[in-house]
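Action item from last meeting closed. Structure (331 res):
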């Protein structure tokens, strides 16, 4: 009876994590799309300073992680704050490119392109490190690459194009793939830091990354002649609705990180990957239905192709994990 109660509590906690990740990041996606496509106020101006979202996100997450460390973390011996300087650079440039892509391609296209992270990882692994992958892994990559490229080549509806600030599919997809490349370096650097400093907590990483992100973005937005930080602040003053959207966008990011950390600590990274992958699919559905980005039946076929590849990849990881667990069991 006790085991049954414990299992039920675990299911409830998993449902809580799924609801938290989905609600935070789906709503953040809606706000991101709103800020990149909406015309604010009677003058009908667009919010052109999308890089400002990254600065605002860094500041909110920096404050959030500092509070969490003071309230919950008792770990000492984590990585020093200065060790994140290089990862902070790529973590500043990468997301800036990803969000800038929304000026040129639709939100569903951006989500789909950014879901193909395995492609640059496998290319780098094969060409640079000589890693050999299995046939099922290549099948996953071909499904994702085929789905994304087919989606990119298909004609976008005139209604979707009319919402974009500067429609330019090659530039938009190029920015997304550069975003993925920089993310790969960021993740590798974070792994290196946690390997050198095993006592580093998720909150330590969040604090260090957002501290450097805040420093770099402050310089980019305010520290040079072409910086648009003051223009972004002026726009928010003239259009308070945009300011509120930015605030809730940042809050969703901080809350979402909380649920991701909770999921990884209680259920593992594979469960977290499954939840975030399905969330991306739901985000595309929500964008298509609520935000007026209609997809043709062929485009939906491409979306299903991409997420079939991602689902197969999750299944392969699960099988690998099961085999490892069997090997660890005593005979």
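Sequence:
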């Amino acid at each position: 009876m006790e085991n049954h109660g414990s299992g039920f509590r675990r299911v409830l906690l998993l449902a809580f994590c799924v609801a938290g990740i989905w609600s935070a990041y789906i709503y953040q996606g809606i706000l991101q799309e709103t800020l990149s496509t909406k015309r604010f106020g009677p003058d009908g101006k667009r919010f052109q300073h999308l890089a400002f979202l990254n600065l605002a996100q860094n500041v909110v997450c920096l404050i959030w992680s500092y509070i969490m460390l003071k309230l919950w973390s008792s770990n000492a011996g984590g990585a020093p704050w200065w060790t994140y300087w290089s990862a902070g650079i790529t973590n500043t440039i990468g997301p800036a490119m990803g969000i800038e892509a929304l000026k040129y391609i639709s939100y569903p296209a951006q989500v789909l392109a950014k879901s193909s992270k395995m492609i640059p990882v496998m290319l780098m692994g094969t060409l640079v490190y000589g890693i050999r992958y299995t046939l099922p892994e290549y099948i996953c990559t071909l499904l994702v690459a085929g789905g994304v490229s087919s989606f990119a080549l298909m004609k976008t509806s005139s209604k979707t194009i009319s919402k974009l600030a500067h429609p330019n599919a090659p530039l938009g997809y190029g920015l997304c793939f550069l975003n993925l490349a920089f993310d790969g370096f960021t993740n590798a650097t974070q792994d290196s830091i946690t390997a050198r400093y095993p006592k580093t907590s998720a909150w330590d990483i969040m604090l260090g990354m957002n501290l450097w992100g805040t420093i770099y973005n402050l310089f980019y937005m305010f520290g040079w002649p072409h910086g648009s930080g003051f223009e972004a602040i002026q726009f928010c003053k003239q259009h308070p609705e945009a300011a509120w959207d930015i605030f809730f966008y940042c809050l969703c990011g901080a809350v979402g990180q909380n649920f991701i950390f909770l999921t990884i600590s209680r259920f593992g990274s594979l469960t977290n990957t499954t939840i975030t992958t399905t969330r991306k699919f739901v985000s595309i559905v929500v964008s298509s239905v609520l935000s007026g980005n209609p997809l043709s039946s062929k485009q939906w076929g491409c979306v299903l192709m991409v997420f079939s590849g991602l689902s197969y990849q999750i299944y392969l990881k699960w099988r690998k994990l099961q085999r490892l667990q069997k090997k660890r069991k005593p005979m």
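Note appended to the action item: The chain has a mean pLDDT of 85.
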